[in-house]
Amino acid sequence: MSVQHAPVQRADFDQVMVPVFAPAAFIPVRGEGSRVWDQSGRELVDFTGGIAVNVLGHAHPALVEALTEQAQKLWHVSNVFTNEPALRLAKLLIAATFADRVFFANSGAEANEAAFKLARRYGHEVAGPEKCEIISALNSFHGRTLFTVSVAGQPKYSEGFGPKIEGISHVPFNDLEALRAQISDKTCAVVLEPIQGEGGVMPADQAYLEGVRQLCDQHGALLIFDEVQTGVGRTGELFAYMHYGVTPDILTSAKSLGGGFPVGAMLTSERVAKHFGVGVHGTTYGGNPLACAVGEAVISIVNTPEVLGGVARRSERFKAALLRLGAQYGVFEQVRGMGLLLGAVLGEAWKGRAGEVMKAAQEEDLMILQAGPDVVRFAPSLVIAEADIDEGLARLERALARLTGA
Where in this protein does the record say N6-(pyridoxal phosphate)lysine is found (predicted)? Predict the structure, then answer.
């Protein structure tokens, strides 16, 4: 028997939802590849990828098949039991990375929560209760739980919620000397995004990450890479740390890992994992068979030379076009990022107006993102068709022409 759906409109959002979001004026109802259709049947090109989530686009046949097949078998058993998809996905991730052990969660925030708790537990057990301090970067983003928002270096997200978690400090990103001055033997972990996402699509310098690794080793601190946004092929490698040749002690993943189905993972070494014993941490839904079946399909497809190599080619196509548009319309002064996580930095006259560019693009049937007020962000499907890239960029050009009066 089919469920009868009551009609809903965008105006309903303002009546029934807690007002922590301000969604677009239209409601997407269907997606295929990198095209999306709204309630009125309008077609849009999707350069957002669900904020770096829909790594294989919308309704990818292999993901639909994996989900449908698993849905007919087993949806949920809790962590009183394990399940086959979780074990298969864990083995895939271990085989492809530095890690020996995996913990599954439902989101990036939960993966980071687990990582930060593990780091403090590790410090407590190897050196005592004073080794609990965590250092992260200004303008970083690590999630919305009280712990993760406290670790993230953006006060606008952490203020107004009562006393803050102690033992957390923030230093400028890409500034090794600032970290050197802050780190001590009380530091249990340094937490970084290899490319700051919400902070404006800002890649770490090679020498910086190498230096951070050395400082962590000198002080017995763990190095945590938050690869929630940069992971699962987004940069052209399975994880961004592989570009740098700098290996973390803990890595967190989510977003693209499920290709649109909620799943998160914390990856770590045997040496660190052993400090999380039975009952120390947990989750009800983490490692859900549905999520892990989809994640297994995602990794199997993305971690191939064809897909990863294709990211670099598509990236160059995007960069060249964005630089041309920047020069022609005087809106963008720089394009930065890696692979298909790109940020077009607004020029001086356009500072603070990323939201305007995003809205103008929507009016031209293009979905794009912003990363702060000064950066327009692009995080499309890794397998987006070249025809969709070109059509989306043509729509972006129309938006820029209209904004600038050109």
Answer: 255
E-only strand ranges, 201-317? 202-203, 222-226, 250-253, 264-268
Question: Residue 223: which pLDDT band, with cuts at 50, 70 and 90?
Answer: very high
| CA-wise closest residue to 31 among 404, 401, 388, 315 | 388
Binding-site residue set for pyridoxal 5'-phosphate? 108-109, 141, 226-229, 284
Minimum mean pLDDT range among 1-5, 284-288, 369-373: 1-5
**Residue 127: Cβ within 10 Å count:** 15
117 among known catalytic residues: no
Q: Is 226 a catalytic residue?
A: yes
Of 251, 269, 302, which residue sits at a domain end? Answer: 302
Binding-site residue ranges for N(2)-acetyl-L-ornithine = 144, 283
Last residue of a domain, one of 302, 334, 358: 302
For 144-173, write each residue's pLDDT tens digit: 988 888 998 778 888 888 888 999 999 999
Q: Which pTM does this prediction carry?
A: 0.95
Residues 287 and 327 in one domain: no
> Choosing from 104, 225, 255, 388, which is the catalytic residue?
255
Question: 52-74 burial by CB neighbour count: b if 16+ within 10 A, else e?
Answer: bbbbbbbebeebeebbeebeeee
pLDDT at residue 69 is higher than 90: yes
349 and 274 within one domain: no
CA distance 56 to 63: 9
Asked if 175 is an active-site residue, the reply is: no
Q: Which of 131, 147, 226, 239 is catalytic?
A: 226
